[in-house]
Each structure stands twice: as C-alpha cells, then as structure tokens.
Design a protein that fits this description.
Blueprint (H helix, E strand, L loop, with lengths): L1 H5 L20 E3 L8 E2 L13 E5 L2 E5 L5 E5 L10 E5 L6 E2 L2 H13 L3 E6 L9 H8 L22 H16 L1 H4 L6 E6 L1 H12 L8 E4 L15 E6 L10 H8 L4 E6 L18 H11 L9
Helix pairs in contact: 4-6
Length: 305
C-alpha cells in the first residue's frame, strides 16, 4: 500500500511555470457563478478556516480553499456524441485548482471531439485566507531538486481520502445519469494534470467502485507503482524539462511489466502546467495524440450490440 502512495510524488506545491508572455502575479478574481456545476454532496473539509476564493495567475482562473466538490458537464453538440466520457481533474498541488487551463479548456476540447467531459472540482487542503498571505506562501523559497545520480527520494505521502471520495462520487453520478448524458458506462475514463494526474492514478490504484476504461495522467508523478490486475490502459505525457520528470520512467515500466497497454510521450520541452499547450513547445501536440490513441483503441466507437 505504501508504494501506491509514493506515486503521489507529483509536486505537492507545483504551480504553473509555463513560459508565456503573461504576468505571473496573483490577482484577486470574483467567484464565477458556475451555473452548470452539480453538487457531489461529499461533505466538507475539516479545519477549513476560509471560504472558497478565486484568483488569476498567468491569465488563468484558479480556485482555492474548495470545501464543496462539484462536477461540471461539457457535453458534445447533438448528433456528435460518440458515447465516450472523461472525468477531467485539474491540478494545483491539492491547494488550488487550475480551472481554466487544466479544466474547462480541456473539457471543451474533448466535447468538440464528441466526448462527454466532466470537470471535477475536488476538495482541497486549506491555504491562508488572505490573498497576500497566500501569494507569499506560493512564492516562498523551495529546496532545489536533487542533481546527484540515482533515484530521487520520494515525497511524503498525503491523505487523499476526500479527493478520492469526490472522484468516486463523480464517477457514480456519470453512471447514474449515463443515459441522460449519452454516455456508455463502459467507456468512462479519467484524465488529470499534475496533482490531478496524481488523483487519477490514486483512483486507479485504490478505488473499489470506479471501473475506469482508460486513464491519462498528464505531467504527474513518474515513480513506480503496484499495478492492479484490472488496471486500465494508460496514456502518459510529460516534458523532459518538467521538474517532476527527473529522468524517471517507473510508472511506465510498472504498466509495461504488468502487461497493461501503455503509451508514453516524453516531450523535449513544455515545462510544467502547459495544459493544452503554450507557444513554441513540442508538447503542444499531446492532445491530438491522445484523441488518436482513444480512436485507435476503439474508445470512440460504440460497441456493437
């Protein structure tokens, strides 16, 4: 069980470091109305002193101190749906969520491909209530990544009980409303970014109720794991200049040795937090490759009766 938690070495304090010509300063942002968000009714967060608040950084909307989990559907246009569905889990080190870059934008792109997408706004660990204090906390000095050879030391495991409950509730809701949303219950996958990739992997390794058809950890932890016998096929993406990569291929090797289909894209550049892509980066084509992978593996084709 411990090795399953070690996989969550996904940079608990990672923030979007994309080299785009925008201001990295944290600005306050009014909470959006989110009219299509559906409550998951999974409870609150213990010792949460602050309400949910939003901010903008690198031009993207982000949320923190989330105590109420929701699921927002992005459904394909009528006549375009192919029955596949994807739970989208944004990242943010479990302290905030990059809702635009790694949530809504990805879901919209999936819906355009005929895939029903569902953005999971999962519960987070508390951060300072004051935006100034939060900004100072985000900008605090961090230890440098190890440069010596050999396997890097694993990061401490964290308790993802709340987050797993939220993912399981999202999956259960999609199953329950599959006919209404035009979803094939046997073709529900999950894709996540950074911490969201960690939650995707944690759900795959630990959930007793989720039967994911496929998973897509995007720039998540790369350490080895114990692969369940019924693990789904995996599409994995990371850039070589991402601080989470560190020359590791453990999770890929684990899937390969378990005999489970795996596709791995190691891009020359892209850094961390690139979402669908940033200017002039080789990682910008990952989404096209992901859709092609889904198509080749027949996840976009309804099973014959």
């Amino acid at each position: 069980m411990n090795i399953k938690k070690v996989v969550l070495s996904l940079g608990l304090f990672a923030f979007a470091a994309s080299a785009i010509a925008q201001d990295g300063t944290i600005y306050p942002l009014d909470n959006p109305s989110e009219p299509n968000a559906i409550l998951l009714n999974t409870g609150g967060v213990e010792d949460q002193p602050a309400p949910e608040t939003w901010f903008r950084q690198w031009g993207d909307p982000m949320a923190r101190n989330i105590s109420t989990a929701t699921l927002t559907p992005f459904l394909p246009e009528p006549g375009k749906a192919n029955g596949a569905a994807v739970i989208v889990a944004p990242g943010g080190g479990f302290r905030w969520l990059s809702m635009g870059n790694e949530g809504w934008e990805v879901a919209e792109a999936l819906a355009k491909q005929g895939i029903a997408a569902f953005v999971l706004k999962y519960r987070l660990f508390p951060t300072p209530e004051s935006l100034d204090d939060f900004s100072d906390w985000m900008n605090r000095p961090r230890p440098a990544a190890p440069t010596n050879s050999g396997e890097p030391a694993p990061r401490p495991a964290i308790d993802l009980t709340n987050q797993l409950e939220d993912a399981e509730a999202a999956y259960a809701m999609i199953i329950d409303r599959a006919e209404e949303w035009g979803v094939d219950p046997e073709r529900i996958g999950m894709i996540g970014f950074s911490a969201g990739a960690g939650l995707t992997m944690h759900s795959t390794l630990n959930s007793k109720s989720m039967k994911l058809a496929f998973i897509g950890p995007i720039y998540g932890g790369m350490g080895p794991v114990e692969v369940p016998k019924d693990a789904p096929p995996m599409f994995n993406v990371i850039a070589s200049d991402d601080f989470l990569f560190r020359g590791q291929f453990g999770v890929i090797d684990s899937w390969f040795k378990a005999g489970i289909p795996v596709e791995f894209h190691l891009y020359q550049n892209g850094g961390h937090g690139f979402g669908l892509g940033n200017p002039n980066r080789t990682s910008n084509r990952w989404f096209d490759a992901f859709v092609h992978w889904l198509d080749v593996n027949k996840f976009l084709i309804a099973k014959s009766e």
